[in-house]
Amino acid sequence: MAARAAVFDVDGTLTDTNHLHVVAWWEAFRQAGHTVPMPDIHRAVGLGSDDLIERLLGPDRDRDQDSAISSAHKALYGAYFDRLPAFERAGDLLRTLAGRGWRVVLATSASGPELAALRRAVDADEAIADTASSDDVDEGKPSPEPVQLALELAGAEAEQAVFVGDTVWDMEAATRAGVRTVALLSGGIPRVDLERAGADAVFRDVADLLARLDESPFA
């Protein structure tokens, strides 16, 4: 039987961390002399750092500030590493899918100590087969590259995979990779935006998805 891949975003999907990112980015921008509205930052969460800064400050910004802004965000967000919260039943969902024969792969813009902290929060390492992090790809979401790498790591074809995420960028990346998509509302993005970006199914959060797994693309 061909391998089946369950590909998961992490921030806003398995962990309740999107708004921590918003606050950390807001402060990083403030320190660099920029006032960026939090709702705009929220909608950009899920992009890699370079793309997020480009989207929020535009092409005419002083690019010499980019590295300092990104470093400030990492330092500010790092203050939460010892207490990052996973969503209820996140680990149970991954273990259930692994028990049903799905190869669980994380596809995330997080890497290094941040990714390690997120994995500790989810506490389901035994169910996670592999990880496609920002260190492993040239382009982050909405490029399909992270999802394509996750499929390669799982040894699965696109038609044998399901991607679970919470942002427009997640849905666009998975759709471009030809993968069925499950969107979660736990990241704070409106249902209509997720559906417009290609979501095949929408659930409230991981606990809702687990409770209705047999009604989902994982059935």
Automatic annotation (TrEMBL):
It is an enzyme of class 3 (hydrolase). Its EC number is 3.-.-.-. It comes from the Bacteria. Pfam families: Hydrolase. GO terms for molecular function: hydrolase activity. The keyword Hydrolase applies. Gene3D superfamilies: HAD superfamily/HAD-like, Putative phosphatase, domain 2. Keywords: Hydrolase. PANTHER family: BLL8046 PROTEIN, PHOSPHOGLYCOLATE PHOSPHATASE. This is HAD family hydrolase. It comes from Streptomyces bacillaris.
